[in-house]
TrEMBL record:
PANTHER family (alphabetical): E3 SUMO-PROTEIN LIGASE RANBP2, RAN BINDING PROTEIN
Molecular functions per Gene Ontology: GTPase activator activity
Name of the molecule in the record: RanBD1 domain-containing protein
Region: Disordered, residue numbers: 1-39
Pfam families assigned: Ran_BP1 (PF00638)
Length: 214
C-alpha cells in the first residue's frame, strides 16, 4: 500500500504547513492595519501654495479667439511666424484702457502685448485673406519695441469681428467708456451669411482644427 501523499511531507507536517498559512495571513492583515495608522513626514518640505497672477485680473475680455500671429523682419524683408494661440482684446475696468494680448498655445509665453491707441490702423494683408496688419509699440519681449504685426484667423467672419472690436477699443479710454464684450454671435444670428457660433460670446477653436485649415 502506497501513500498518496507527497513523499516530502508527512500528514503531521502537512497540517502544520496549513496552519502556518492561516497564521501568515493573520500577520499580514495585522501589519496592513498598522501601516494604515502610520504617518511619515515628507523628506523635503513642500512649498506653500502660491496664487498665480496673469495680470489680467482687473480686465474684462472684449474679444478672444484662436489665431496665428506674424511679425515683419526688416532685415530679411519677410513675415515670420511669432506664435499660435488665443488673441485677446482686454479692457481695464477702472482706467478703461484697452490692450491686445496673445500667448503661445500650451507654453503660454507672451508673443504680443501692447496698448491699443486711437492712431492705430488695421490694414488688410495683401494676398492673404482673413488677415490684418498694424504697427504697435509691443512689450512681449520685456522692453517696448516698435513692431509691424499681422494676425490671421480661420474664418472671415472672425477677422471682421476682430476689426470691429479693435476699432471700438481705440477710442474707449478717450470716451471713458466701458465696452460690452463682443457677443454678436452668442445667440443665433439671423443676418444673411452669418455662420459663426460661439460660447458666451468668446470664440474658441481646437488647435488641430485650426492648423488643418491654415
Amino acid at each position: 500500500f502506497k501513500s498518496i501523499l507527497s513523499p516530502s511531507k508527512s500528514p503531521s507536517k502537512l497540517n502544520q504547513s496549513q496552519a502556518s498559512v492561516g497564521t501568515d495571513d493573520e500577520q499580514e492583515s495585522s501589519q496592513e492595519e498598522q501601516r494604515d495608522d502610520q504617518y511619515f513626514d515628507p523628506v523635503v518640505p513642500l512649498p506653500d501654495l502660491v496664487e498665480v497672477s496673469t495680470g489680467e485680473e482687473n480686465e474684462q475680455v472684449l474679444f478672444s479667439h484662436l489665431a496665428k500671429l506674424y511679425c515683419y523682419d526688416k532685415d530679411l524683408s519677410q513675415w515670420k511666424e511669432r506664435g499660435i494661440g488665443n488673441l485677446k482684446i482686454l479692457q481695464h475696468y477702472k482706467t478703461k484702457r484697452t490692450r491686445l494680448v496673445m500667448r503661445r498655445d500650451q507654453v503660454l509665453k507672451l508673443c504680443a502685448n501692447h496698448w491699443i491707441a486711437s492712431n492705430m490702423n488695421l490694414e488688410p494683408m495683401k494676398r492673404a485673406e482673413k488677415a490684418w496688419i498694424w504697427n504697435a509699440f509691443d512689450f512681449s519681449e520685456g522692453q517696448g519695441k516698435v513692431e509691424q504685426l499681422a494676425v490671421r484667423f480661420k474664418l472671415q467672419e472672425t477677422a471682421n469681428a476682430f476689426k470691429e472690436v479693435f476699432e471700438e477699443a481705440k477710442t474707449a479710454q478717450e470716451k471713458d467708456t466701458l465696452l460690452t464684450p463682443f457677443s454678436a454671435f452668442s445667440k443665433p444670428d439671423k443676418r444673411p451669411g452669418a455662420k459663426l457660433s460661439s460660447l458666451n460670446g468668446w470664440f474658441y477653436r481646437q488647435l488641430d482644427e485650426f492648423l488643418g485649415q491654415t
